[in-house]
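Q: Got one fold?
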Amino acid sequence: MTALGTPPANYAEELALGRMPRQRDDRRRQRTTRIRGVRAGFWVYVGLGVVLIGSLFPFYWSFLIGSGDASTINDPNMSWIPGGNFLENAATVVNDPAVNFWRALWNSILSSALIAASVVATSTLAGWAFAKLRFPGSKPLLVFVVATMAVPLQLGVVPLYILFADLGWTGNIGAIIIPALTSAFGVFWMTQYLQQSVPDELIEAARVDGASMIRTFWTIGVVAARPAAAMLGLFTFVTAWNNFFWPFIVLDRSDPTLPVALSLLQSNHFVDYSIVLAGVLLSTLPLLLLFVFAGKQLVSGIMAGAVKG
Protein backbone atom coordinates (compact mmCIF):
# COMPACT_ATOMS: atom_id res chain seq x y z
CA MET A 1 0.00 0.00 0.00
CA THR A 2 1.18 3.53 -0.74
CA ALA A 3 1.35 6.36 1.76
CA LEU A 4 -2.08 7.64 0.70
CA GLY A 5 -3.64 4.20 1.21
CA THR A 6 -4.34 3.57 -2.48
CA PRO A 7 -3.64 0.11 -3.89
CA PRO A 8 -0.53 -0.40 -6.03
CA ALA A 9 -0.85 -0.49 -9.82
CA ASN A 10 -0.53 -4.27 -9.99
CA TYR A 11 -3.06 -4.89 -7.18
CA ALA A 12 -5.86 -5.93 -9.53
CA GLU A 13 -3.45 -7.65 -11.93
CA GLU A 14 -2.31 -10.11 -9.26
CA LEU A 15 -5.88 -11.22 -8.56
CA ALA A 16 -6.60 -11.37 -12.30
CA LEU A 17 -3.74 -13.86 -12.62
CA GLY A 18 -5.23 -16.01 -9.85
CA ARG A 19 -2.90 -14.74 -7.09
CA MET A 20 -3.86 -12.97 -3.91
CA PRO A 21 -2.07 -9.66 -3.23
CA ARG A 22 1.01 -10.25 -1.10
CA GLN A 23 -0.20 -8.81 2.20
CA ARG A 24 -3.60 -10.55 2.02
CA ASP A 25 -1.89 -13.77 0.95
CA ASP A 26 0.46 -13.63 3.97
CA ARG A 27 -2.45 -13.10 6.36
CA ARG A 28 -4.38 -15.95 4.76
CA ARG A 29 -1.36 -18.29 4.98
CA GLN A 30 -0.82 -17.45 8.65
CA ARG A 31 -4.48 -18.08 9.49
CA THR A 32 -4.47 -21.36 7.56
CA THR A 33 -1.33 -22.43 9.44
CA ARG A 34 -3.00 -21.70 12.78
CA ILE A 35 -6.07 -23.72 11.79
CA ARG A 36 -3.99 -26.66 10.60
CA GLY A 37 -2.01 -26.59 13.82
CA VAL A 38 -5.08 -27.35 15.96
CA ARG A 39 -5.41 -31.11 16.57
CA ALA A 40 -8.86 -32.63 16.97
CA GLY A 41 -9.60 -34.37 20.25
CA PHE A 42 -10.84 -37.92 20.87
CA TRP A 43 -14.51 -36.95 21.15
CA VAL A 44 -14.35 -35.08 17.88
CA TYR A 45 -13.40 -38.30 16.11
CA VAL A 46 -16.12 -40.17 18.00
CA GLY A 47 -18.71 -37.64 16.91
CA LEU A 48 -17.50 -37.75 13.31
CA GLY A 49 -17.60 -41.54 13.38
CA VAL A 50 -21.21 -41.52 14.59
CA VAL A 51 -22.20 -39.04 11.88
CA LEU A 52 -20.39 -41.14 9.24
CA ILE A 53 -22.13 -44.34 10.33
CA GLY A 54 -25.50 -42.60 10.42
CA SER A 55 -24.91 -41.22 6.92
CA LEU A 56 -23.84 -44.56 5.43
CA PHE A 57 -26.49 -46.69 7.09
CA PRO A 58 -29.35 -45.78 4.65
CA PHE A 59 -27.14 -46.79 1.72
CA TYR A 60 -26.22 -50.08 3.38
CA TRP A 61 -29.88 -50.76 4.23
CA SER A 62 -30.92 -50.09 0.64
CA PHE A 63 -28.17 -52.38 -0.63
CA LEU A 64 -29.12 -55.04 1.93
CA ILE A 65 -32.77 -55.09 0.82
CA GLY A 66 -31.88 -54.57 -2.84
CA SER A 67 -29.62 -57.61 -2.81
CA GLY A 68 -32.39 -59.90 -1.51
CA ASP A 69 -35.77 -60.94 -2.86
CA ALA A 70 -39.39 -59.90 -2.32
CA SER A 71 -39.59 -61.62 1.08
CA THR A 72 -36.41 -60.13 2.53
CA ILE A 73 -37.92 -56.95 3.98
CA ASN A 74 -40.62 -58.91 5.87
CA ASP A 75 -38.29 -61.62 7.18
CA PRO A 76 -37.97 -61.30 11.00
CA ASN A 77 -34.73 -63.32 10.83
CA MET A 78 -33.25 -61.25 8.04
CA SER A 79 -29.49 -61.53 7.79
CA TRP A 80 -27.41 -58.35 7.91
CA ILE A 81 -25.12 -59.82 5.28
CA PRO A 82 -26.15 -58.74 1.72
CA GLY A 83 -27.50 -61.41 -0.58
CA GLY A 84 -26.47 -62.10 -4.13
CA ASN A 85 -29.46 -60.78 -6.09
CA PHE A 86 -28.49 -57.12 -6.47
CA LEU A 87 -27.29 -57.36 -10.06
CA GLU A 88 -30.39 -59.33 -11.01
CA ASN A 89 -32.67 -56.77 -9.36
CA ALA A 90 -30.76 -53.89 -10.97
CA ALA A 91 -31.11 -55.56 -14.37
CA THR A 92 -34.86 -55.86 -13.77
CA VAL A 93 -35.05 -52.11 -13.16
CA VAL A 94 -32.96 -51.24 -16.20
CA ASN A 95 -34.85 -53.57 -18.54
CA ASP A 96 -38.35 -52.72 -17.32
CA PRO A 97 -40.15 -51.09 -20.30
CA ALA A 98 -42.48 -49.19 -17.97
CA VAL A 99 -39.53 -47.49 -16.28
CA ASN A 100 -37.63 -46.52 -19.47
CA PHE A 101 -34.49 -46.25 -17.35
CA TRP A 102 -31.94 -44.98 -19.88
CA ARG A 103 -34.26 -42.28 -21.21
CA ALA A 104 -35.06 -41.18 -17.67
CA LEU A 105 -31.35 -41.14 -16.78
CA TRP A 106 -30.55 -38.93 -19.78
CA ASN A 107 -33.41 -36.56 -18.94
CA SER A 108 -32.16 -36.23 -15.36
CA ILE A 109 -28.55 -35.59 -16.43
CA LEU A 110 -29.55 -33.07 -19.10
CA SER A 111 -32.03 -31.12 -16.99
CA SER A 112 -29.86 -31.08 -13.85
CA ALA A 113 -26.73 -29.96 -15.74
CA LEU A 114 -28.53 -27.17 -17.62
CA ILE A 115 -30.29 -25.95 -14.48
CA ALA A 116 -27.05 -25.95 -12.46
CA ALA A 117 -25.10 -24.10 -15.18
CA SER A 118 -27.84 -21.50 -15.63
CA VAL A 119 -28.28 -20.90 -11.90
CA VAL A 120 -24.53 -20.43 -11.41
CA ALA A 121 -24.27 -18.00 -14.35
CA THR A 122 -27.32 -15.88 -13.52
CA SER A 123 -26.66 -15.88 -9.77
CA THR A 124 -23.04 -14.80 -10.23
CA LEU A 125 -24.04 -11.96 -12.55
CA ALA A 126 -26.88 -10.81 -10.30
CA GLY A 127 -24.78 -11.24 -7.17
CA TRP A 128 -22.03 -9.08 -8.65
CA ALA A 129 -24.54 -6.38 -9.55
CA PHE A 130 -26.15 -6.34 -6.10
CA ALA A 131 -22.85 -6.55 -4.24
CA LYS A 132 -20.60 -4.18 -6.18
CA LEU A 133 -22.71 -1.95 -8.42
CA ARG A 134 -24.77 1.01 -7.33
CA PHE A 135 -28.08 1.57 -9.08
CA PRO A 136 -31.46 2.96 -7.98
CA GLY A 137 -33.64 0.45 -6.18
CA SER A 138 -30.91 -2.16 -5.68
CA LYS A 139 -31.69 -2.82 -2.02
CA PRO A 140 -35.50 -3.05 -2.40
CA LEU A 141 -35.01 -5.31 -5.42
CA LEU A 142 -32.70 -7.61 -3.46
CA VAL A 143 -35.22 -7.74 -0.63
CA PHE A 144 -37.91 -8.67 -3.15
CA VAL A 145 -35.72 -11.45 -4.60
CA VAL A 146 -35.05 -12.87 -1.13
CA ALA A 147 -38.75 -12.60 -0.22
CA THR A 148 -39.69 -14.86 -3.14
CA MET A 149 -38.01 -17.73 -1.29
CA ALA A 150 -40.89 -17.61 1.20
CA VAL A 151 -43.42 -18.48 -1.53
CA PRO A 152 -44.10 -22.26 -1.53
CA LEU A 153 -43.61 -24.08 -4.81
CA GLN A 154 -47.04 -25.68 -4.47
CA LEU A 155 -48.66 -22.26 -4.60
CA GLY A 156 -47.58 -21.69 -8.20
CA VAL A 157 -48.07 -25.18 -9.59
CA VAL A 158 -51.59 -24.67 -10.96
CA PRO A 159 -50.95 -21.38 -12.85
CA LEU A 160 -47.58 -22.69 -14.02
CA TYR A 161 -49.16 -25.86 -15.39
CA ILE A 162 -51.88 -23.83 -17.14
CA LEU A 163 -49.19 -21.62 -18.71
CA PHE A 164 -47.19 -24.57 -20.07
CA ALA A 165 -50.39 -26.28 -21.23
CA ASP A 166 -51.33 -23.17 -23.23
CA LEU A 167 -47.83 -23.11 -24.72
CA GLY A 168 -48.03 -26.80 -25.56
CA TRP A 169 -44.95 -27.65 -23.51
CA THR A 170 -46.43 -30.21 -21.13
CA GLY A 171 -44.69 -33.53 -21.50
CA ASN A 172 -41.53 -31.77 -22.72
CA ILE A 173 -38.29 -31.81 -20.73
CA GLY A 174 -38.07 -28.04 -21.18
CA ALA A 175 -41.06 -27.68 -18.86
CA ILE A 176 -38.90 -28.61 -15.88
CA ILE A 177 -35.80 -26.72 -17.04
CA ILE A 178 -37.19 -23.27 -17.82
CA PRO A 179 -38.86 -22.54 -14.44
CA ALA A 180 -35.62 -23.44 -12.62
CA LEU A 181 -33.12 -21.43 -14.71
CA THR A 182 -32.80 -18.81 -11.97
CA SER A 183 -32.68 -19.15 -8.20
CA ALA A 184 -33.46 -16.56 -5.55
CA PHE A 185 -31.29 -18.43 -3.08
CA GLY A 186 -28.43 -18.49 -5.59
CA VAL A 187 -28.64 -14.72 -6.06
CA PHE A 188 -28.63 -14.15 -2.32
CA TRP A 189 -25.76 -16.63 -1.82
CA MET A 190 -23.53 -15.04 -4.45
CA THR A 191 -24.39 -11.51 -3.32
CA GLN A 192 -23.29 -12.23 0.23
CA TYR A 193 -20.14 -14.03 -0.88
CA LEU A 194 -18.98 -11.40 -3.37
CA GLN A 195 -19.78 -8.60 -0.97
CA GLN A 196 -17.35 -10.06 1.58
CA SER A 197 -14.67 -11.54 -0.66
CA VAL A 198 -14.01 -8.71 -3.14
CA PRO A 199 -12.74 -5.42 -1.66
CA ASP A 200 -13.98 -2.27 -3.34
CA GLU A 201 -10.35 -1.17 -3.71
CA LEU A 202 -9.78 -3.96 -6.24
CA ILE A 203 -12.58 -2.69 -8.43
CA GLU A 204 -11.31 0.87 -8.20
CA ALA A 205 -7.79 -0.28 -9.09
CA ALA A 206 -9.13 -2.15 -12.12
CA ARG A 207 -11.01 0.94 -13.27
CA VAL A 208 -7.87 3.06 -12.86
CA ASP A 209 -6.05 0.53 -15.05
CA GLY A 210 -8.69 1.11 -17.73
CA ALA A 211 -10.66 -2.14 -17.39
CA SER A 212 -14.31 -2.06 -18.41
CA MET A 213 -17.01 -3.31 -16.07
CA ILE A 214 -17.35 -6.57 -18.01
CA ARG A 215 -13.59 -7.17 -17.89
CA THR A 216 -13.53 -6.30 -14.19
CA PHE A 217 -16.27 -8.83 -13.55
CA TRP A 218 -14.52 -11.50 -15.61
CA THR A 219 -11.01 -11.04 -14.19
CA ILE A 220 -11.91 -10.24 -10.57
CA GLY A 221 -15.51 -11.25 -9.86
CA VAL A 222 -15.43 -14.64 -11.56
CA VAL A 223 -12.06 -15.53 -10.02
CA ALA A 224 -13.23 -14.61 -6.54
CA ALA A 225 -16.59 -16.35 -6.98
CA ARG A 226 -15.23 -19.75 -8.06
CA PRO A 227 -15.46 -21.50 -4.65
CA ALA A 228 -19.00 -20.25 -3.97
CA ALA A 229 -20.07 -20.93 -7.55
CA ALA A 230 -18.77 -24.51 -7.34
CA MET A 231 -20.76 -25.15 -4.17
CA LEU A 232 -23.88 -23.53 -5.61
CA GLY A 233 -23.60 -25.55 -8.81
CA LEU A 234 -23.13 -28.81 -6.91
CA PHE A 235 -26.08 -28.29 -4.60
CA THR A 236 -28.29 -27.05 -7.43
CA PHE A 237 -27.47 -30.15 -9.48
CA VAL A 238 -28.38 -32.42 -6.57
CA THR A 239 -31.63 -30.53 -5.93
CA ALA A 240 -32.64 -30.69 -9.58
CA TRP A 241 -31.71 -34.38 -9.76
CA ASN A 242 -33.90 -35.26 -6.77
CA ASN A 243 -36.84 -33.07 -7.79
CA PHE A 244 -39.98 -35.18 -8.02
CA PHE A 245 -43.07 -33.02 -7.49
CA TRP A 246 -43.06 -30.78 -10.58
CA PRO A 247 -41.68 -33.38 -13.06
CA PHE A 248 -44.31 -35.86 -11.84
CA ILE A 249 -47.04 -33.36 -12.72
CA VAL A 250 -45.82 -31.95 -16.03
CA LEU A 251 -43.99 -34.85 -17.72
CA ASP A 252 -45.44 -37.85 -19.52
CA ARG A 253 -44.76 -41.30 -18.11
CA SER A 254 -43.09 -42.22 -21.40
CA ASP A 255 -40.49 -39.44 -21.05
CA PRO A 256 -39.81 -38.98 -17.31
CA THR A 257 -36.89 -38.05 -15.13
CA LEU A 258 -35.29 -40.75 -12.99
CA PRO A 259 -37.22 -40.11 -9.71
CA VAL A 260 -40.53 -40.17 -11.63
CA ALA A 261 -39.53 -43.33 -13.50
CA LEU A 262 -38.61 -45.15 -10.28
CA SER A 263 -41.97 -44.26 -8.76
CA LEU A 264 -43.55 -46.48 -11.44
CA LEU A 265 -41.98 -49.47 -9.68
CA GLN A 266 -44.49 -48.93 -6.86
CA SER A 267 -47.58 -48.56 -9.05
CA ASN A 268 -48.62 -52.21 -8.79
CA HIS A 269 -50.74 -53.78 -6.05
CA PHE A 270 -47.71 -55.79 -4.95
CA VAL A 271 -44.52 -53.82 -4.41
CA ASP A 272 -41.22 -55.68 -4.58
CA TYR A 273 -39.05 -53.50 -2.37
CA SER A 274 -35.89 -55.35 -3.32
CA ILE A 275 -36.32 -54.07 -6.88
CA VAL A 276 -37.42 -50.61 -5.71
CA LEU A 277 -34.37 -50.13 -3.48
CA ALA A 278 -32.07 -51.51 -6.16
CA GLY A 279 -33.43 -48.78 -8.44
CA VAL A 280 -32.94 -46.18 -5.69
CA LEU A 281 -29.28 -47.14 -5.41
CA LEU A 282 -28.87 -46.93 -9.18
CA SER A 283 -30.32 -43.41 -9.15
CA THR A 284 -28.04 -42.40 -6.26
CA LEU A 285 -24.86 -43.73 -7.84
CA PRO A 286 -24.33 -40.74 -10.21
CA LEU A 287 -24.65 -38.34 -7.26
CA LEU A 288 -22.11 -40.31 -5.26
CA LEU A 289 -19.68 -40.20 -8.18
CA LEU A 290 -20.28 -36.45 -8.48
CA PHE A 291 -19.42 -35.90 -4.83
CA VAL A 292 -16.32 -38.08 -5.15
CA PHE A 293 -14.95 -36.03 -8.06
CA ALA A 294 -16.21 -32.64 -6.83
CA GLY A 295 -15.49 -33.22 -3.14
CA LYS A 296 -12.09 -31.55 -3.28
CA GLN A 297 -13.58 -28.42 -4.86
CA LEU A 298 -16.39 -28.44 -2.29
CA VAL A 299 -13.99 -28.62 0.65
CA SER A 300 -11.72 -25.95 -0.85
CA GLY A 301 -14.72 -23.69 -1.31
CA ILE A 302 -15.75 -24.11 2.33
CA MET A 303 -12.17 -23.53 3.54
CA ALA A 304 -11.80 -20.47 1.29
CA GLY A 305 -14.76 -18.91 3.03
CA ALA A 306 -13.53 -20.01 6.46
CA VAL A 307 -10.00 -18.58 6.20
CA LYS A 308 -10.78 -15.55 4.04
CA GLY A 309 -8.92 -12.59 5.48
In short: Confidence is low (pLDDT under 50) at residues 1-9, 15-20. The two ends are 16 Å apart (CA to CA). The first helix runs from residue 11 to 16.
